[in-house]
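User: Okay, second chain of the day. Same drill as before: sequence in, structure tokens out.
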Amino acid sequence: MRDLQSIRRIGAWIFMGILAITQLYPLVWLLLYSLKTNSEIMSGQFFSLPKKLQWQNYSDAFTSGSYMKYIGNSIWVTIITLALTIILSGMVSYAITRFKWRYGNTIMLLFLIGIMIPIQSTLLPLMIIFKNIDILNTHMSIIIPYVAFSIPLAVFILSGFLRGIPHEIEESAMIDGASIYRVFFSIIFPISVPPIMTVLILTFISIWNEYIIASTFLSSDNLKTLPFGINSFVGQYTANYGAIGAFLVLGALPVIAFYFVLSDKITKGMVAGAIKG
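Assistant: Same drill. Structure tokens below.
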């Protein structure tokens, strides 16, 4: 039995080691890629170390790539999207799971169907609608689709958690004279912090590097988000691949930092949602 347990333990460590290598290797490779010259990158030696660290690539990413301008636009769009997604999906989930009404399950089914709708199928009708209401080429033209496509998954996660909260908490508050909005924002919302954190990170990752919607609805360079900065290093005949790698590293840093800051709460939120659901 001891030999069998040792073999299982060794096998588990080997599996986890292979998994860690496969997950970390792309990040390490991208970091090395960003510190190489074009000739080193085009040589095809993917596993080689740079002969000399090209920190100039990061300087080019900041200056030629207009990194601060693009990341400022991305942060603004992301904050507005996250705030609207959390508030709207929280209210919808609360209404579906806590109120007794005839069409609750039907509304929930419609939101679940929304998860399966591809973004590409909505680009043309959204283009026509946004042009008619004169919000094309504004941040609102990308915030609205981001929120719309983020809400279905958020409702699915939050509703699974809210179903497990005892109704007595709300009933006692309502007896004391609290309104529905007071109950939601003062009681239900603070209790739902773990699944909210899960929704935050999933939404953040999905929209931070989003390109299709932004490239369709934004044409002004002053409004474009972070992924557009890569175009600054691609010319008609040449491309600065090292600067592209540096720009990708700088673009990935906020996502990595955001995840590590909220990693504990995200894990708790996913487990809580699974148990409550």
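Residues 64-276 form a domain with the MetI-like fold fold (CATH 1.10.3720.10).

User: Thanks, on to the next one.
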